Amino acid sequence: MPFVNDMAIVFYKNGHVCGMTPRPLGRYYDSRDDINSATTIFSDGIQYDLTNIDSIHSIAIPNYKAYESSAIGDELGVTGCLDYVLRMRAGKYWNYCEYDLSMACLEKATQLMKYSTIGWDKKDFFRIVNYLNDLGRFKQATAWEKWINFNVPDIEEIVSANISASCEFLETDLVEVGDSNACCPKCAMYRKRIYSISGKDKRFPRFPDDLHLDCGLSVHPFVYGISEPSFKCWNLILYSNRRFKDDRTADEINNHKERQEMLAKQPPTIRKPQLPRIIYFKLKKLLPDDAPKTISGFLRMYNANSKRYQSLVKKAESIGFVFPKSLEEIAAQEVY
């Protein structure tokens, strides 16, 4: 496998790279490919073989929070975290059709991401669901989707927890909601105000439960008499209690429209199983020199039923590949 480095050994402590042998001639950051390609790693003193599925599965969860700043770790940043490296390695295995090894690395990476200090978005966790669906391993995909939804909080939950913790630390019941030039009509009504989280401070409105925390508005603790608001107003209490209305300018309304259009173009977090994709990845492993280099190229020839596709079908069938006709057929044959 051209992406495997049998010579390098990478050492991790508390989930971060702390050394490598042979030592890079230059910066560790410039040796990221060697780090991602190393077959042998030591994590907290225990050796693991990244070419062995059982060994990958046995990798212990590091104590990420115990990490202490070091020259190597700080230089590598996120790219030196064990969960990040395993995701990179999963991608390398995937590109060379080593699907079982790819999934072993991605499964372990996904498990570690829950404890990592990187701060992964919830959408990042669903890569494993999409990969499993592309392989026709629907049962595993469903199991991982349930695991993620149970173990990984939504951004709203994370933000709410952080706000509560910060307010508790500062011993305040007040928060400030900032501004955004691309928020929705509802959030436009709530911006640039001070709120009482509990509603007990009658000087200010109660913090709304339908504010979109992913709409671009900042929310942070506010200590009355000490904190300075980020917005200008003539009277903080009266201004926070002004009438709730959508006061966006024409430019802000257009900004929100453009943002929504941009978000609509982004691929879905969870991609539904697609028969052509499953066929492609099977063919890519079976006939690596004949299958198109990219999934988009295959989908074009598949949808057009081109002569090249017909030729590929004949060659695959000649060596015993039976083309599935439906997702139900694939599900019925699942062995995972």
Would you kindly provide a written description of the structure presented here, covering whatever features stand out?
The protein is of the alpha+beta class and 336 residues long. The chain is 46% helix and 11% strand. The protein has 16 helices and 7 strands. The chain has helices at residues 32-37, 53-57, 71-76, 82-95, 99-113, 122-125, 127-134, 138-151, 155-170, 185-190, 236-240, 250-265, 275-286, 295-304, 307-318, 327-332, and strands at residues 5-13, 16-21, 38-43, 46-49, 174-177, 193-196, 219-222. The strands form 2 sheets. Strands 2-1-3-4 form a 4-stranded mixed β-sheet. The protein has a 3-stranded antiparallel β-sheet with strand order 6-5-7. A hairpin with a 2-residue loop joins strand 3 and strand 4 (46-49). Helix 4 packs antiparallel against helix 5 (99-113), helix 7 packs antiparallel against helix 8 (138-151) and helix 13 packs across helix 14 (295-304). It is globular and about 80 Å long. The protein starts with a strand and ends with a helix.
Topology (SSEs and partners):
Elements: E1 5-13, E2 16-21, H1 32-37, E3 38-43, E4 46-49, H2 53-57, H3 71-76, H4 82-95, H5 99-113, H6 122-125, H7 127-134, H8 138-151, H9 155-170, E5 174-177, H10 185-190, E6 193-196, E7 219-222, H11 236-240, H12 250-265, H13 275-286, H14 295-304, H15 307-318, H16 327-332
Parallel strand pairs: 1-3
Antiparallel strand pairs: 1-2, 3-4, 5-6, 5-7
Helix pairs in contact: 4-5, 5-7, 7-8, 13-14
